[in-house]
Write a structure and sequence with these properties.
The longest helix has 16 residues, at about 40-55. The protein has a seven-stranded mixed beta sheet. The chain is built from eight helices and seven strands; from the N terminus they run H-H-H-H-E-H-E-H-E-E-H-E-H-E-E. The protein starts with 5 loop residues before the first helix and ends with a strand. The chain has one domain (about 25-225): Rossmann fold (3-Layer(aba) Sandwich), CATH 3.40.50.150. Helix 6 (about 105-110) links the parallel strand 2 (about 95-100) and strand 3 (about 115-120). The protein is globular. The protein has about 230 residues and is α/β, with parallel strands linked by helices. Helix 4 packs across helix 5 and helix 7 (about 150-160) crosses helix 8 (about 185-195). The structure holds S-adenosylmethionine (SAM). S-adenosylmethionine binds near residues 84, 85, 140 and 146.
Length: about 230
């Protein structure tokens, strides 16, 4: 998606499965508290397929990443969901690994046999054999749907998986435009946690097509870099 997609992207809470959460890695997140189960996962994907059928652009994130690093680059799609961004990055020629803690979304993602997907919690991520990504991308409100109090650990873990010079890219809605169940995240706080993870601020925009950032706007897309890694 190229603008602020969140208003259309998320559905009202309570519309999907009320079954008990399945086994999943890590502590419950704001996402897993809101939706879980195969039916909810399929409905979430269908929501995007419907948007695409209506002409929505679902691939602004993948194009943005490709402007930072040319294919083939190693890209970590952190909180990949059903693989919307990861699969497009693969199609663009990148070497992509998608990670998510929702097993039902990940099962859908794995229908794309050309992209690798791993079930894991981002706050404890340790991909022992794959430490060096050129980009880690947190797309589609992963940040406000983390478990409360885990953003610092998540950024530390993602920073630990970047190659020297690698980028961390995160797009999320700001207060006033948050989807149901998501937590407000102040971009300044995000920057502080990123700096604590050893990452340098590069740029902030208000959309995936690089519209200028507006502090009172509804979306923040932030780029950091592992400069001295
Ligand atoms: C709004 S969805 C976005 C999915 C995907 N990035 C996209 O844009 O289509 C948020 C995703 O973040 C994942 N998530 C939230 N906290 C997580 C964590 N601690 N570890 C792994 N995934 C997490 C959820 O499971 C969910 O798939």
């Amino acid at each position: 998606m190229s603008g602020n997609p969140q208003a259309r992207r998320e559905r009202p809470s309570g519309m999907w499965s009320t079954a008990p959460p399945p086994n999943r890695p890590g502590p419950p997140t704001r996402w897993s508290r809101r939706q879980h189960g195969p039916e909810a996962a399929r409905a979430y994907r269908q929501h995007f397929l419907d948007l695409a059928a209506d002409g929505a652009d679902l691939h602004g994130e993948a194009r943005f990443v490709t402007t930072l690093v040319p294919p083939p680059s190693r890209v970590l799609d952190a909180g990949c969901g059903y693989g919307r961004v990861a699969s497009e990055l693969t199609r663009l020629g990148h070497d992509v690994l998608g990670v998510d803690a929702d097993p039902d979304l990940l099962a859908l993602a794995r229908e794309d046999a050309d992209t690798r997907f791993v079930l894991a919690d981002l706050s404890t991520l340790d991909l022992r054999t794959e430490q060096e990504f050129h980009v880690a991308v947190l797309a589609g409100n992963v940040v406000p749907y983390l478990a409360d109090g885990t953003l610092a650990q998540v950024l530390e873990r993602l920073g630990a998986h970047l190659a020297p010079g690698g980028y961390l890219v995160a797009g999320f809605a700001l207060p006033g435009a948050l989807p149901p169940g998501a937590a407000p995240v102040d971009p300044g706080d995000y920057d502080r946690w990123a700096r604590a993870a050893g990452l340098s601020f590069i740029a902030r925009y208000s959309s995936w097509d690089r519209a200028p950032f507006a502090p009172d706007g509804d979306y923040a897309l932030t780029v950091h870099r592992l400069v001295n890694g």
